[in-house]
Amino acid sequence: MVQLVSLILTGIAALLAFAAPAHAGPVFVAALSAGAGVGAAFAATTLGHFLTQTLLGRLLGAVALSALQAALMKPATPGITTETIRSGGVNPSSFLLGRYATEGDEVCPPMTHGKADKTPNAYLTYVISLGDIAGQTLSRVIIDGEYTTFTGAAHADYGTPATGRLAGYAWIKYYDGTQVVADPMLLAKYAGYPERPWLSDMVGTGICYAILTFRYNRELYQSFPRCRFEIDGIKLYDPRKDSTVGGSGAHRWANPATWEPTNNPAVMAYNIKRGISLPGLGIWGGDAAAADLPLANWFTGMNEADVAEALAAGGTEPRYRAGYEVTVDKEPAAVIEDLLRACLGQVAEVGGQWKLRVGGAGLPVMFVTDDDIIVTKPQDYEPFPASDQRFNGIDARFPDPGTGWEPKAAPPRYNATWEAEDGNKRRVASLDLPACPYPDQVQRVMKGYIADDRRFRRHNLTLPPDAAILEPLDTISWTSARNGYTSKLFDVTEVQDDVRTLLQGVALREVDPTDASWSTALELPYSTASSIAVPLTSQTVESFDLQAHTITDAGALDRRPALKLLWNGAEQDGVTAIEYEVRVAATAVVVKRGAITDVGAGALILAEGILPSTAYEARMRPVVAGPVAWTAWDVATTGAVQLGQIDLDGSVVKAVLVGPVDIPTTVGYVFLSMSTGPISPHHLWRSGLSAEVRKNGGGPGDAILAFEQRYKFAGVWSAWVQKGTVTVTAVAWDVDGISSGFAGQYEDVEFRLSVVSNAGTRVQSLRNVYMTAVNVVKS
Fold this sequence. Notes:
Layout: E1 2-3, H1 6-16, E2 23-24, H2 44-55, H3 67-72, E3 91-92, E4 94-97, E5 99-102, E6 105-106, E7 111-116, E8 119-131, E9 137-143, E10 146-148, E11 160-161, E12 170-176, H4 184-190, E13 208-215, E14 227-232, H5 265-274, E15 276-278, E16 282-284, H6 295-306, E17 308-310, E18 316-318, E19 324-327, H7 332-341, E20 346-350, E21 353-357, E22 366-369, E23 380-382, E24 393-400, E25 406-409, E26 413-414, H8 416-421, E27 428-432, H9 439-453, E28 458-463, E29 475-480, E30 485-497, E31 504-510, E32 545-552, E33 558-566, E34 577-584, E35 590-596, E36 603-606, E37 615-623, E38 634-637, H10 645-648, E39 652-657, E40 661-663, E41 670-675, E42 683-693, E43 703-713, E44 716-717, E45 721-728, E46 734-743, E47 748-757, E48 762-778
Parallel strand pairs: 22-29, 24-27
Antiparallel strand pairs: 1-30, 2-3, 4-19, 5-14, 6-8, 7-8, 8-13, 9-10, 9-14, 11-12, 12-13, 15-16, 17-18, 20-21, 23-28, 24-25, 24-26, 28-31, 29-30, 30-31, 32-33, 33-36, 34-35, 34-37, 37-38, 39-48, 40-48, 41-47, 42-46, 42-48, 43-44, 43-45, 43-47
């Protein structure tokens, strides 16, 4: 019978532990659909015969691979399994082992609801499935690349609030698969949703999922938020904690309620070999009997992983840990390979049982000398491979929680002595460790792999019948005067049992237990880039200044009070406009709002509606992509520039509406009008409108009113021309004004205030309307 090393047996493990993929629907239903996913049996008669006939005769020509060479034969993806959220309804079921991260599966496309202030559809909802086995727990959440802390009193609808920069703009609810009713918020907000309404049978029993709610804020969210979840995986059976099988504790294989989460890769591999149950889908994994996994051997591997390892920064951590997201379309053997790669692990099938080794070589189970070797049988010795077939350095990539679980390169390990031995050429093995999200452990694994790979000696020889105790992954001690060995250790990689003579043909590979040993002095410097997003500095208006100003006429006579807004308009890249607000200092009532697109002008004079001898405050902010901030309020007091005789020389036409009155939705509706009568030539007239408006009720959008003018000449009226508009935006009463001028000879001039647009009736939203026309200059 042939005993095979883990490399060759990986393919057999795939056959023993094959499971067909299962598919999770896009929306939760009362129960998951049934699927295949059951471990297949090993066809011993056919496959066993094939292996025996083809490998027995090749033992002496076999080359025993190092653990590193075996690991490199099947490269893996260095990052997490689900690096982007999966959508659609045919994704395979999944679950997490140990602490790991995932972006999950969309249960449904993002949905919106509600209103915040004036913003419709202000709340965005994600429903994301994070695993198809109940019991996973949520550790941390990464939003747009930054770890976000959720804590505090839960919102009645949305759950636990975010803190920090997303406070008030993000919430989360997490269900661990034990829920028995649908989420009440989803039912309340989306039961009547036009597409994919949320129904009461959408419970998701057995499914771990998160509901995230985001409130719209264009400065916080430049696009749809990207989320990643750090999860503590499913509960697993640890036989060391089962007092009925030689352990100590309450774990029982038949009662999953007694199990606990674990980061131990050997415990994970054990559970996969025995099979992991997916409710409604059967068994994923090997479905091996307990007797096929000898506990004395597996306990040793599990305990080796838990050994406390000292850290250079102080404290300790378990020697080997692992984390992984399993999708059930992946072969269980491939998952075990990734897990064992994180702990220098190997597995072999020996006489129908699975044997495990974690870390370096174990204690020798047999001691041999040259006298024990059957010299009448062929022998083969390989002292070292060709220089281009060996490595003298190693680098590795792994998912780093410190960088938001993005793939990160560990510090490479080089060795000048080895490079000199290899002809001064650097040959670096590149290792991917997707199941090892622990930076210090990655360094330990790298050191163990590359040191073991420098053990070059290989022997194929024959030993007496008492060597029948040897199995793959055993270690022997060999003292050989001919080879210069003194108690030198070798791994048994293959064994050939000659059933006629009982002689044992063995393949040996040089090993040293110290290869897997570690000292804090070996730890290489390693830094993790911060995952905290540094917010952009809010851009404001440079050198803003508010000054009182006076408008003079051609004769240098003071005619109108005004305000001058000044700023530095040079080198304002990306700024498309500057917004401003002006308010009365005594009342803080904003009387003017607007924007100037000529950013480089550096100055703006405001005169319309500005009163004399009045203290005003003003502020500005840029219009630019990214965060912006208002300047501080600056204050200035206008001069005592009153109307003079020159302003009042002429007739005055006036119309008044006291109100308040409603603003209807009828376009063209006229509130009041007036006419001047005949206008003589060589006269200059000023017309104006002053009104108080507010936004009281109605639909979305703003109401717009127009101050219009037309002329009558030769018995024909001209078309109405807008002289200005009033936009109703503020909830509080707001004063707005329009002024214009005209001259000429007309039979009549008429003015009116009318509705341009309005989505809904504004109740009692217009008052104190004054419409005037004044003949200010006679020439």
